[in-house]
Design brief:
Radius of gyration: 20 Å
Bound molecules: iron/sulfur cluster
CATH superfamily of the largest domain: Aldolase class I
Helix content: 25-40%
CATH class of the largest domain: Alpha Beta
Number of strands: 13
Number of helices: 12
Structural class: alpha/beta
Strand content: 15-25%
Amino acid sequence: MITDIDGLPPILKSSITAEEAAYLETLRRRKGFPFGVTAYFASLAGANQDDPIRRQFFPDPREALADPFALDDPLGEAVYRAAPRLTHQYRDRALILAGGACPGYCRHCFRRLWMARAQNFIDAETLTPILGYLKEHSEIREVLVSGGDPLTASDEALAWLFGELRAARPGLLLRLCTRAPITDPYRLTPRFIELLQAYRPVRMAVHINHPRELAEPARKALGECAQAGIPVHVQTVLLRGVNDNAEILGDLFRECLDLGLSPYYLFQLDLAFGTAHFRVPLEEGLNLYRDLGRRVSGLALPRYAVDLPGGGGKLILHGGVIAGAHDSPRGAVYMLKAPDGRLWAYPQ
Ligand code: SF4
């Protein structure tokens, strides 16, 4: 992983402004959310500051701007913590934070604070109470293995984790949440794909934001997963200056479909610190989604959703979800109506 400006390809290195370099230095001094990108992913980026790949991995000084809506834990995962590294928010699903490393760090990441604390891959001591919880809670049918990116662990470590989960709950569906097929596609070796097959039922949820991320190595890795019988679901984050355009999103989701991947969610960006410059206003997002719906088939259309801030859960966004708007002490907010009728404030 490239972690400093000198490691970048020459064309990118020469594009870094003095302001960007100074901000990177500040981040490093304060031990903030780290900068890191694989040489592979950096090679996909253009030298222009507005390049959609570059924007996703190179720290932007705007991350330091004050943001009255930002939260330490935007999804409110701490509210649903069942054990260290285990979140049980939805009845039949649980989330394990397997590790805190990623092959590269996305500047829009909502778990940035967790990862800034450099978590190791989960060990037996932490996993034991999680296995106990899963045994006691038979209503849990699916475990999301996330992080960080679990694919930063070795095949042996993943085989150990999957084996322990399988032994505790034989029928459990394992959902592997990863961006590695995009940022580090060579990680998906034939041996790794065999490992996934050995622990089926396994599905992958892959984070993909822009059609240019589907370069040949990524297409090959993802196509091989699909052919090996590992269903791949695509999760996309709506990002200002990256993919806030119905034509770009249409291209992305059509290409995913061609590769045998299922567009699953288009997420409204979570309210994490340092990400306000990526935010697309909700009304604009709804208009864009309507436009997208006119361009692609239903098979290529993900659900547009938001994780309600502070633990309100996932809300599918559609016409009618906005129940009103008003000014709050922090700024203008929409009131969003959750399926249970509760109202949640969300910044305009
Ligand atoms: S790969 Fe996922 S967990 Fe890692 S930095 Fe990107 S968004 Fe965050």
